[in-house]
Design a protein that fits this description.
By secondary structure, the protein is α/β, with parallel strands linked by helices. It has two domains: 2-152, Alpha/beta knot; 167-224, Trp Operon Repressor, Chain A. 36% of the residues lie in helices and 16% in strands. It has helices at 10-14, 20-27, 64-77, 95-101, 119-124, 141-152, 162-166, 200-218, 220-224, and strands at 2-7, 32-37, 50-52, 60-62, 82-86, 106-111, 128-130, 185-186, 189-190. The strands form three sheets. The chain has a five-stranded parallel sheet, with helices on both faces. Bound molecules: 6-chloroguanine.
Length: 226
């Protein structure tokens, strides 16, 4: 999978890709990440990227022309399956979206800044808009890193233990059950007996009960989504 990230702050985004699972995916050749500094497509001597809003109002808006130049250059080199815009005024990211995106060949991620981008960028180029939650970040860079992490770990071959992505929280719209490791008793707190029993069908039943219980308590909204 190839991901092209268009940003005004590439430095803010690079380090998550140099560690852990994302580094492993890149080293294995399963993911390829390319950063594009929007500034290089800016207008005039000052490489201008943004301007004030028509109609008035606080905050600068990213102009269409630099973004058009950058996206058009990429599109002249290869076909893209999705052109994603990271913005708080969009549907929130969930596991279904991450699963779907992990099967794509080439995607572009455009990260917003300031007051966002000229609406005509969204109308002309963007095929999918994603928010990572109901709060506002300074820019879309950290959100893009989070999206990439959620997607890249699902690319077949990235996770060592192929099972583990399937038992993640949210994979079946449920939170994960509690987990324990040694010691079996700590400061009077005991690990639930069932987990020490070796009775694996019973253990699975217990885990599934606990997953439902935890979901009912903490995220009952997830149960309504089925
Ligand atoms: Cl994708 N961008 C920004 N700037 N803020 C956010 C977000 C994205 N998702 C949640 N808040």
């Amino acid at each position: 999978m190839r991901i092209d990230i268009i940003t005004v702050a590439p430095e803010l985004l690079k380090s998550p890709f140099e560690h852990s699972m994302m580094k492993r995916a890149i080293d294995k050749g399963l993911a390829e990440i390319h950063f594009h500094n929007l500034r290089e497509y800016g207008l005039g001597n000052y490489r201008q990227l943004d301007d004030t809003q028509f109609g008035g109002g606080a905050g600068m808006v990213l102009m269409i022309e630099p973004i058009d130049k950058c996206i058009s250059k990429l599109q002249s080199e290869r076909d893209y399956d999705e052109i994603i815009y990271m913005t708080p005024d969009a549907k929130t990211l969930n596991q279904v979206t991450a699963n779907t995106l992990s099967l794509k060949e080439n995607i572009i991620i455009l990260t917003g800044h300031y007051k966002g981008v000229d609406q005509r960028v969204r109308d002309k180029f963007i095929t999918k808009e994603i928010s990572i939650g109901d709060y506002v970040l300074t820019g879309g860079e950290l959100a893009a890193a989070i999206l990439c992490d959620a997607v890249i770990r699902l690319i077949p071959g990235v996770l060592g233990d192929e099972q583990s992505a399937l038992t993640d929280s949210f994979q079946d719209n449920l939170l994960s059950p509690p987990v324990y490791t040694r010691p079996a008793e700590y400061d009077g707190m005991k690990v639930p007996e069932i987990l020490l029993s070796g009775n694996f069908p019973k253990i699975e039943e217990w885990r599934s009960e606990k997953a439902i219980e935890r979901t009912q308590q903490i995220r009952p909204d997830l149960l309504d989504e089925n």
